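Entry 12.
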Amino acid sequence: MAAVNNQQPEFDAVAEAMNGISLGHAVLATHFERMQNLPAVAGGAQILAEVRALGTNLGTLRTEIGTLRTDMADMRALLHTEVGTLRTEMGALHTGVGALCTEVGTLCTEVGTLRTDMEALHIEVGIHFEDLHIQFEDRGQQVEALGLQFEDFRPELDEIRQAQQAAEFNSLARLENNTVNMIPAAPLSPLRTAQNQPINGFPETLGQLNGLHWARLNALLTAYGLPTEGTVPVRRTRFKMFISVIVDHT
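Predicted 3D structure (C-alpha cells):
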C-alpha cells in the first residue's frame, strides 16, 4: 500500500512559475512579430541584390586570381632566368677560383725560389761581411800606424804651426815698424822668434834701438838667428832691416 503524501502545496512557487510562463509567452510574441522584417518576407529583393553583389565579387575574385596566376608565371620565368644567370656566374666564379688557385700555386713556387735565393744571398753576404771585417781590421791597423806616424810628426807640425803664427805676427809688426820715420820717441812693434815666443829686452822705441849696447844687440841678433859679425853700426843696421825699420844710408 502506497504511503500517504501529506505535503502541502507552495503557492509562492506556483505564482513564480506562472509569472515565468507569462513572460515566456510575451517574448515569443515579440519575436514572432519581428519575423516580418526578414528579407524573404519583403519579396526576396534584398536577397537578390546580395546574391548579385556576391556574383560581382566572385567575378572580381576570378579576375584577380587570373592576374595572380599571370604574375606567378612571370615570377616563375624571371626566377628561372635569375637561376640560370646565377648558375652562369657560379660557373665563372668556379673558373676564377681555379685560376686563383693556379696563381697561388705559382706564387708559392716563386716564394720558394725567392727563399732559396735569399738563403744563397745570406751566405754570400756572410762571406762578404767576413772579408769586410778582415779589411776593416787591416784598415784599423793602418790607421793606428798612421796615428803613430802622426805622433812622430807632431813636433814638426807644431814647429811649422808656431813658425807660421810667428810669421803672421811679425808681418804685422814689420808693417807697423816700417812707418817709423827716424823719430827717437816713435814706438816699435816687437817681433817674435820662429817658435812664436816674445823676446825680452826688445827696444820699445827707435831711440832705445839706436842706443843699444853691443852686448844687448848681439843677444837680440842671436835670439832671432841673425849673424853677429861686423861693427856695431853694421849689426844695428842689420837688426833694423830685420824688423823693417827704414834705414837712412845717406
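Annotation: The longest helix spans residues 45-177. The CA atoms of residues 36 and 43 lie 11 Å apart.
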